[in-house]
Structures are given as C-alpha cells and as structure tokens.
UniProtKB/TrEMBL annotation:
It comes from the Bacteria. Keywords: Phosphoprotein. This is diguanylate cyclase. Residues 192-333 form the GGDEF domain. One of its GO terms (cellular component) is plasma membrane. It catalyses: 2 GTP = 3',3'-c-di-GMP + 2 diphosphate. It holds the Pfam family Response_reg. GO terms for biological process: cell adhesion involved in single-species biofilm formation; negative regulation of bacterial-type flagellum-dependent cell motility; phosphorelay signal transduction system. SUPFAM superfamilies: CheY-like, Nucleotide cyclase. Its cofactor is Mg(2+). Residues 34-149 form the Response regulatory domain. InterPro entries: CheY-like_superfamily, Diguanylate_Cyclase, GGDEF_dom, Nucleotide_cyclase, Rev_trsase/Diguanyl_cyclase, Sig_transdc_resp-reg_receiver. Its EC number is 2.7.7.65.
C-alpha cells in the first residue's frame, strides 16, 4: 500500500473540527476515547495519527501481537486493523480479540487494500463491525470512525446504568461477576496474583429488626460508600454480592497488600460510628471479611475456578464470623485446594 493512499491533506485539522461539531456526544467525552491503529507500515501509522490525534487518544502498533497484548491490559475503544501483516494476519488477530473475554467487546474495523466481497464477508463474520478498502476516502473514514465511537460511548453509558446497584451505588451482582471473570482470566494469562475479599455487615438482621428497614437501607449505603472509598486504584473493584454482603476484587495484589486493604476496610467502617445496640461484636456497625489470594502458577495455572475462589473467600468469611466478627480471616492458594463445600449462611 502506498503512503499517498492514507496521507492526510492540509485541511485535516479544520475537517476534524467540522466533523465533531453539532453532534450529540460532547467532544470532551469523545476525547477520552482510545483509538488503536495496527499497520505494519510506519508511514501509514503516522498518517492515521495525524488524521485522528485531534479527536481521540491514538495508540499505534506496527504488529498485531503487541497490539493484542496492549488491548488486554489497557482500555481501547476501537481498533483499525490492517489485514496483510507479516507477523499475524488481520483475520487471526480479530479471531483472538473476539475469543478473549478481555477484548471481545472492542469493535474492529478492517482497513485493507483487498476489495474482494468474499474477504469483506469473512471479516464481518469474524466479528468486525466495518470493512474499509484502500485507497481510503479520508472524510468517509473519519465519519465511520466517529459513528462507531459514538456507538461505543452510548453502549458504555447503558452498561453503566445497567451495572449499578440501585440502593448502594456500587456495582451490582451481574457486573461484579463479569469483572471477576475478566480479572481472573487476566491473572491466569499473565501469571499474576489477585485478591478477592467477601465482606459482610455483622449482625445486620438484628440491626434491621431494631432500627427499621429505612435505617437499614441507609446503613447499607454508608457502608458501601466507605468500602468504595478505600480503593487505591482504578482497577480495584467493589460490588454488591447480595443483601448485606459485598465483594472487593484487587488485581495484582498479594497477601500482604490484601491484608493492608482489609484492615483499612475494618477501620473505615468502624469509623462511621453507626450505632448498633443489637450487635454482638461491638456497640456499632462492623464488618467481617473473608480474604483469598490466588497466584497463577505456570505449572498449574487453572487448577481453581472462579466459583471455587468465591467459595474459598466465603469460607474465610464464615470463619471470621465464627471467631468473633469484626475481623479478617484469610487463605492463600499456593497448593491444590481440597474439595470446597458450601458454608452455612453467615450473620
């Protein structure tokens, strides 16, 4: 492919502004979006960067393998993907993207010199959202990228609305399950560690009986906000597991780091000073925590499932309740665990 097929003209800046004006999505919001361009020609990457750098955060890769690794680790909203590349064909790269739960949601647009209808059909069947042939009409390319970016933006807004627990404001169970699966898959893939904490408000049923359900709802909100406030990184995740039980997912966090976070959680909730005359551990609302650390080992990277990881954390939560509440109990997974049984319901 020749450079002239992609080289932008001198009016790119003005054209980009014209294309983004008068649209329903604020430019400041779209500016936060990330566009990945994958092409083995440096001149084409430079041209694409010049074309889109005024509208999006642009990341450039001259090979598909590095691009795939980046997409698994960082946020990417849309990918412009060349077909004919030496290290990995665009079809293969698209297949890997769509088969990985960490990247399956990212829309892919093929940009290729092949104008075969069979190639286009094959690319779309693999999961691409669009197929653009070279030489590229720059105005059409900008417009199509803009349209797909808007769809990504609105999809994310809908996902946010559908993923938040209506009472507490933290993530709901469905979103929690999704994030936990994604982080677990990433932990295994890269041989890292992760910490999962199951967090339960102590003696919450007696609290509801004593103070009423409206005050119980307020207690849930305040505790959820306190748990959320302890997060140190964007990747630290809090969700409502059900009832008065929450979960915190900490990627790339070992036992020492997990215990530091757990102690801070205990202190933060105690510091709320929510009166609880019906509590057995203190005269105020407290929490108990079951903590499990999973380290992916190369010799047996998938010897435990997400469901088993949750059961292990829940087992430690039950132990913390049994040992007096208002505390954290923990377990690390360095060895093959024994069969995990469901624990009785905790209070």
């Amino acid at each position: 492919m020749s450079v002239s097929e992609l080289r932008p003209n001198q009016e790119i800046d003005a054209s980009a502004v014209a294309l983004t004006s008068g649209t329903s999505v604020a430019n400041s919001e779209l500016r936060k979006q990330t566009l990945m361009v994958v092409d083995d020609y440096q001149s084409n990457l430079q041209a694409m960067n010049a074309l889109f750098e005024y509208q999006y955060q642009v990341v450039l890769f001259d090979n598909a393998k590095d691009a795939l690794t980046h997409a698994q680790q960082e946020s990417v909203d849309l990918i412009l993907l060349d077909l004919d590349m030496p290290d990995m064909h665009g079809y293969e790269a698209c297949t890997e993207l769509k088969s990985n739960p960490l990247t399956a949601h990212i829309p892919v647009i093929f940009v290729t010199a092949s104008d075969s209808s069979d190639d286009e059909a094959h690319g779309l069947l693999l999961g691409a959202v669009d197929y653009i042939t070279k030489p590229v009409n720059l105005t059409i390319l900008r417009a199509r990228v803009r349209n797909h970016m808007e769809l990504v933006y609105y999809r994310k807004q809908l996902e946010i609305l559908s993923s938040v627990d209506g009472l507490t404001g933290v993530a709901n169970r469905r979103q929690l399950d999704t994030v936990l699966l994604q982080q677990f898959a990433s932990t295994i893939r890269f041989g890292r560690c992760m910490t999962l904490m199951m967090i339960d408000i102590d003696d919450f049923k007696p609290y509801n009986d004593l103070y009423g359900h409206m005050q119980g709802d307020d207690c849930l909100k305040r505790v959820a906000h306190a748990i959320q406030s302890v997060r140190r990184r964007e990747s630290d995740f809090v969700g409502r597991y059900g009832g008065e039980e929450f979960a915190m997912v900490l990627p790339d966090t070992d036992l020492e780091g997990g215990l530091v976070m757990a102690q801070k959680l205990l202190q933060t909730v105690r510091a709320l000073n929510i009166e609880h005359q019906g509590a057995t551990a203190a005269d105020r609302v407290t929490i108990s925590i079951g903590l499990t650390v999973y380290e992916a080992k190369q010799e047996y990277p998938e010897h435990i499932s997400v469901e088993e990881l949750i059961k292990l954390a829940d087992r430690q939560l039950y132990a913390a309740k049994r040992d007096g509440k208002n505390r954290v109990n923990y377990y690390q997974v360095p060895k093959l665990p024994t069969p995990i049984k469901d624990e009785p319901q905790h209070e």
